[in-house]
Amino acid sequence: MQPHQLNPIIEPQFESVNDYIINHLGSNVPLVEKIGHYIVEGGGKRLRPLLVLLAANACNYQGKHHIPLAAVIEFIHTATLLHDDVVDNSDMRRGKDTANARWGNAPSVLVGDFLYSRAFQVMVEIGSMPIMEVISNATNVIAEGEVLQLLNCRNPDTTEEAYMQVIIGKTAMLFEAATEVGAILADATDEQRDALRRYGHHLGIAFQLIDDVMDYLSTAEEMGKNVGDDLAEGKPTLPLIQAMKAGTEEERLLIRQAIRKGGLEDLEPVMAAVKRTGSIEYTQQAAHSQANHAIDALSVLPDSSFKETLTTLAHMAVKRSA
């Protein structure tokens, strides 16, 4: 079951978001439209826009601006994917060629810029300065997170704290913005707004932790990207950081060398070390802890099917295999 199918009230709203996104990809430049459609229609669970809908509904929102606002979040997310794939030199996402693999780096970066600017055009139409403040701040923090990740690449001395700072910036920040703007739109109380912001923050961290685990557990078909991509790019994710802490001197040196040089030459022995040291379970446990924090944050919301769906999403985020 797809996440948006968990709640029958949300399903038609979710379809309206999809329609809105497709209808707002128009451009006078055909290549912009072609790449925009390719990446937006390329699959994915649309989890971030779903969070906008659920947060707004959980706070009893009765208007219609949550549809374009959810689309704004998806435009920003899609822009970051286009830019990420160029930075990481990725050739597969969601089981198909990345835009940069098909059209080249320059068009991918520029269409990413187009989607960012389209998001801000839609925000102006919504006309809420508090919402614009949250989203503009989030895009800034996301950019900083990406730069920080770039600085940590091929650095085996990256600490767990530095790694967490990266995933809070590059992943959790947009989750956090999605739930917070849904609350703002619904004129929620300050307590509810903060609760939904914290829910998104912890859910985003949990989601990324499991993503990083899957790089060592899933097949390419399950993930929609190549196995070992993180290692190939020299990214010191938590499974590797913990394996260096808990492993033998030989394993520690092996992982340090693999991070420094990148590539997949040492993938099998590194995967064996990650599994032997219990680093998969360590990262999964950290993800479960974050999901529990997310669920706890919801306690101030009134009981509703939307609150239940938010709780279920937190459980699903840490149980997924793809």
Would you give an account of this structure?
This protein is 73% helix and 1% strand. It has a single domain, classed as Farnesyl Diphosphate Synthase (Orthogonal Bundle). It has 322 residues and is an all-alpha fold. Strands 1-2 form a two-stranded antiparallel sheet. Helix 1 crosses helix 4 and helix 12 packs across helix 14. The model has no long low-confidence stretch (mean pLDDT 92). The two termini are 13 Å apart. Keywords: Magnesium, Metal-binding, Transferase. One of its GO terms (molecular function) is all-trans-octaprenyl-diphosphate synthase activity. Its EC number is 2.5.1.90.
Topology (elements, then pairings):
Blueprint: H1 10-23, H2 30-40, H3 47-58, H4 66-88, E1 92-93, E2 96-97, H5 99-103, H6 105-126, H7 129-152, H8 160-185, H9 190-214, H10 220-223, H11 229-232, H12 238-246, H13 249-261, H14 267-276, H15 279-297, H16 305-319
Antiparallel strand pairs: 1-2
Pfam family, one: polyprenyl_synt
EC number: 2.5.1.90
GO molecular function: all-trans-octaprenyl-diphosphate synthase activity; metal ion binding
Percent range for β-strand residues: under 5%
Radius of gyration: 19 Å
Count the DSSP helices. Answer: 16
Under CATH, the topology can be stated as Farnesyl Diphosphate Synthase
Mean pLDDT equals 92
Protein name: Octaprenyl diphosphate synthase
Catalytic activity: 5 isopentenyl diphosphate + (2E,6E)-farnesyl diphosphate = all-trans-octaprenyl diphosphate + 5 diphosphate
Enzyme class: transferase
Pfam families: polyprenyl_synt (PF00348)
